[in-house]
């Protein structure tokens, strides 16, 4: 849901930290088999005892912690704040979509709610859970690679994925995508485990796919990829047609049962109309506002940023795909198909925000892991080997030159604004200050309203939003929502209003306040002054 922010990704910066770069360079080269350290790719084959294997896998699963620890305590982004505010609303009996609007499936609010239960209602709680999710995704990649090919393939895939989480330009920690990746990757691992072993694994794969789908709908492409692989057996004469159809029904049934169980509460509380509007109708209205040219430009801009941030990974994966197509096997085609599905998922919304590309990371890592032996062989070829090794070294240098500066700023707020130099990143620290100001000047039962996109203010203020709309975007996508919001504000005027639209990159042609909102301020509110970038208004005496 990065569309509420500027969508700008900063890939500039000066090369620094030679010691850290040296370490990262050795790690990157070891993950692709290049250079003198390529022998590390044999580590899976050399480990004979289960205890040694478990120790190495545990160490690999810690890589996301090392790569993301510096970013865990940044202020909430706009997207994260919406999820956090709705999760907090769930604790107080509010229903997503009906009482608090957003356009994402409901499970992301469940993930954030879980983070608050585990770590407390802090802004860093979702990030901590996000890192744990990335660690578990690494573990699922190990299992998937092990089942589809070998222990070494799984270990290489998990290692490369862990290192790739350091691509700070795309912030792979606590937006929707990381929470989708865990059940999506676990679904692939379960499916791989169930090939020829038992139908219960296929059912589990479907259930996990349903969890991914209800976290972010673009998972449908990966879900469909496994479904196609199940039905592909209909082409084989050695497998009973009835058995294939049974597996297809179990897989589809697992998806449907989980999705249905998550949707059912909205039916029970009478919020299904709002559920459909938020997840289907609104997203269609939003997508229609942007021209093909705008979408194409965003794809080029942020696609290039992703390629720079992950250049050696993409290069190695491209070589691995070529090798896989030359030496085809069912397992390799499953992984290549999963990679294609992930690419379609990134492209399908048409907006190409940087964090969308996170969905490619597990598939890229797994396709490399599956071709680990062949990649080592390429490095021994007389001309191709030195060329590939040189390309890997050059691309790694480019990636590090672009990525390391993201780690350099001294404060969390500075790192946030470096990664996103638009209003969404620059304003994060100020939004926290505005929220704390409102907390200090209101009582626990008071409500507040933010005119703009800084939904972080609601979370940091600890006050109930005065309308169901936590950010201004719906007012321009569907003007009927503005009338709904004004009606709510007049019926139950909030104690304070913070107008943060000044200086915002607004999508509407006229950034001026709508007449209905301006009239509301004139009738019921007194201007207090400016706090950070917000104009603050307090309810007039007797305004209630």
Q: What is the element layout, followed by pairings?
A:
Layout: H1 18-32, H2 43-46, H3 50-61, H4 63-68, H5 78-91, H6 107-119, H7 125-148, H8 151-164, H9 176-194, H10 199-213, H11 220-232, H12 241-268, H13 272-288, H14 292-309, H15 311-326, H16 330-347, H17 360-370, H18 372-380, H19 384-403, H20 412-419, H21 423-426, H22 428-440, E1 447-451, H23 456-461, E2 464-465, H24 473-477, H25 480-491, E3 496-499, H26 515-524, E4 525-531, E5 534-539
Brief sketch in words of this structure:
This protein has 544 residues and is mostly helical. The protein has helices at 18-32, 43-46, 50-61, 63-68, 78-91, 107-119, 125-148, 151-164, 176-194, 199-213, 220-232, 241-268, 272-288, 292-309, 311-326, 330-347, 360-370, 372-380, 384-403, 412-419, 423-426, 428-440, 456-461, 473-477, 480-491, 515-524; strands at residues 447-451, 464-465, 496-499, 525-531, 534-539.
Could you characterize the architecture of this molecule?
With 544 residues, the chain is mainly alpha-helical. It folds into two domains: 14-193 and 214-230 and 293-406, no CATH class; 427-539. It has 26 helices and five strands. A five-stranded mixed β-sheet has the order 2-1-3-5-4. A hairpin with a 2-residue loop joins strand 4 and strand 5 (534-539). The longest helix is centred in the middle third of the chain and has 28 residues, at 241-268.
Summarize this structure as a short list of keywords or feature phrases.
single chain; 544 residues; mainly alpha; 2 domains; 5-stranded mixed sheet; 63% helix
């Amino acid at each position: 849901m990065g569309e509420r922010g500027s969508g700008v990704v900063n890939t500039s910066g000066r090369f620094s930290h030679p010691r850290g770069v040296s370490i990262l360079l050795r790690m990157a080269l070891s993950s692709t088999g290049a250079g003198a350290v390529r022998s590390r790719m044999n580590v899976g084959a050399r480990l004979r005892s289960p205890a040694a294997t478990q120790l190495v896998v545990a160490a690999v699963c810690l890589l996301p912690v090392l790569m993301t620890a510096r970013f865990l305590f940044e202020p909430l982004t706009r997207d994260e704040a919406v999820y956090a505010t709705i999760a907090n609303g769930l604790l107080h009996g509010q229903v997503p979509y009906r009482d608090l609007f957003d356009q994402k499936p409901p499970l992301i609010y469940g993930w954030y709610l879980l983070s608050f239960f585990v770590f407390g209602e802090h802004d860093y709680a979702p990030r901590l859970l996000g890192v744990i999710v990335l660690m578990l995704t690494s573990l699922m990649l190990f299992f998937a690679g092990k089942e589809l090919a070998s222990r070494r393939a799984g270990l290489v895939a998990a290692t490369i994925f862990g290192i790739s989480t350091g691509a700070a330009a795309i912030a792979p920690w606590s937006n929707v995508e990381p929470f989708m990746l865990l059940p999506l990757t676990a679904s692939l691992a379960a499916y791989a485990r169930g090939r020829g072993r038992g139908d219960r694994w296929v059912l589990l794969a479907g259930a996990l796919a349903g969890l991914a789908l209800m976290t972010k709908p673009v998972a449908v492409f990966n879900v469909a990829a496994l479904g196609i692989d199940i039905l592909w057996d209909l082409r084989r004469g050695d497998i009973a047609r009835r058995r294939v159809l049974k597996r297809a029904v179990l897989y589809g049934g697992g998806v449907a049962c989980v999705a249905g169980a998550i949707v059912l509460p909205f039916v029970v509380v009478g919020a299904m109309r709002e559920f459909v509007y938020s997840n289907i109708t609104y997203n269609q209205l939003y997508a229609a506002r942007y021209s093909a040219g705008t979408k194409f430009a965003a794809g080029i801009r942020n696609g290039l940023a992703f390629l720079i941030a992950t250049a050696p990974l993409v290069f190695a994966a491209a070589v691995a795909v070529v090798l896989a197509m030359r030496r085809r096997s069912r397992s390799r085609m499953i992984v290549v198909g999963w990679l294609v599905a992930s690419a379609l998922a990134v492209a399908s919304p048409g907006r190409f925000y940087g964090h969308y590309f996170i969905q490619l990371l597990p598939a890229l890592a797994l396709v490399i892991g599956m071709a680990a032996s062949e990649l080592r062989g390429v490095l021994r070829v007389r001309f191709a080997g030195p060329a590939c090794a040189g390309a890997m070294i050059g691309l790694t240098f480019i990636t590090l030159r672009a990525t390391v500066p993201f780690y350099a700023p001294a404060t969390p707020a500075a790192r946030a604004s470096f990664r996103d130099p638009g209003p969404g990143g620059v304003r994060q620290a100020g939004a926290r200050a505005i929220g704390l100001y409102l907390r200090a000047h209101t009582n626990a039962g008071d409500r507040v309203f933010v005119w703009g996109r800084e939904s972080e203010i609601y979370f940091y203020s600890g006050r109930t939003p005065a309308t169901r709309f936590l950010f201004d975007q719906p007012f321009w996508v569907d003007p009927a929502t503005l009338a709904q919001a004004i009606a709510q504000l007049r019926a139950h005027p909030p104690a304070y209003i913070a107008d943060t639209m000044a200086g915002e990159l607004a999508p509407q042609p006229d950034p001026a306040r709508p007449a209905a909102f301006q009239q509301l301020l004139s009738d019921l509110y007194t201007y207090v002054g400016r706090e950070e970038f917000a104009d603050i208004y307090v309810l007039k005496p007797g305004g209630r």
